[in-house]
Specification:
10 helices
Length: 224
């Protein structure tokens, strides 16, 4: 009996060590990808296709150990988005990468539906693909449900609504207005106003504030 118990303990210990090693290797790949993506966010002017392709080896390694890890899938999606950035202005080349990024985000959302940032990332890609459809509406509803007062959700949808409001159906417009209102009542009020001014939507925003009588967290030039 003593040897049996000892054998079980040894077996369990080996299994634990094996799983720990798998996580450790996967994390090495993950941080390789994460550090590259972070560096590109700070300096993207010299980004090359070769760098993107080379990073794919680390992405493949990361997912080979844990293909169902929600955050790894989000990281892989961001890698694909950088391809789209590289091909900015060339939709025929960029869009397949956006579609692959969306697929990664969809897998992540299925595994971790309560994470609001994933939904807003999916919304952003749908808009970049000019896909104002029922799927986009579903993503907007999910983002609103999972992150009703999440600043990334509020500000992200508010900006998208202001710029693309003519493409929204009634249900999507109602969601968009909800997030405009919440952003105006948050610390991001000036960021939304400056975005509207930069994109030629200042008049629309000011009109909404006047007509809807939105409360503001700070006074804006058009709301006096």
């Amino acid at each position: 009996m003593h040897w049996l118990i000892k054998g079980v303990v040894v077996t369990i210990s080996l299994v634990v060590i094996w799983f720990a090693s798998q996580w450790g290797i996967a994390n090495v790949y993950y941080f390789t990808v994460y550090n590259k993506l972070t560096a590109w966010e700070k300096q993207s002017s010299e980004l090359t296709l070769e760098q993107l392709d080379e990073l794919g080896n680390a992405v493949d390694g990361m997912l080979s150990y844990h293909p169902d890890h929600p955050h790894y899938l989000v990281t892989a999606a961001k890698w694909q988005e950088w391809y789209a950035f590289y091909y900015y202005g060339e939709d025929e080349l960029a869009n397949p990468y956006l579609e692959q990024a969306l697929a990664y985000y969809q897998q992540s959302a299925a595994l971790r539906p309560s994470w609001p940032e994933t939904w807003i990332n999916m919304i952003s890609i749908k808009v970049r693909l000019d896909a104002f459809d029922s799927e986009l509406q579903e993503y907007m509803q999910q983002a609103t449900t999972m992150g009703p007062y999440n600043e990334h959700v509020n500000l992200g949808i508010a900006k998208i609504f202001l710029y693309n409001w003519r493409k929204f159906n009634a249900e999507m417009a109602a969601l968009g207005l909800t997030h405009v209102e919440r952003t105006l009542q948050s610390n991001n009020v000036f960021e939304l106003y400056n975005y509207a001014k930069l994109t030629g939507r200042q008049g629309l925003l000011c009109q909404l504030i006047d007509v809807k009588q939105f409360e503001l967290s700070a006074e804006l030039p058009c709301a006096g």
